[in-house]
Design brief:
Number of helices: 4
Structural class: mainly alpha
Order of helices and strands: HHHH
Helix content: over 70%
Largest sheet: none
Amino acid sequence: MEKQTKIAILWIVVMCGLTIHSLADLMPLFWGEDITVSQDGNTPTGLLMFMMTMTYLIPVLGILCVMFWNKRMGRKTNAILATVMALFNAAHCFELLDFTPVQVPMLVGNLVVSIVLCVISWHMVEKCKNGCSCCG
């Protein structure tokens, strides 16, 4: 399997992990349990934009960079985005130690996938630095 395809698949797995993480917070609703909801009626627009950026925009940009921007700068941009995602997942994994037990394996798994994505992305940058046919 080509490295480009591996990286795209890892980006998709990270996106799925973040989506499942959000859904796991809502699962108690199916059993009639309460979940924490803000009662002030205000939507935290800045937080929503940040989460949209982290869970959708950065992974999509990473996929586009690695699949369609066949230059060294595209590989480097993807690697930087993968590093940002790995740091975000590390911070999110360790920021709170009071997650429900369901969240812990999910967050650790997403962190591991993010680190693998980051390592493979930087290896691809190094390969292109040493001259390869993929970067033109």
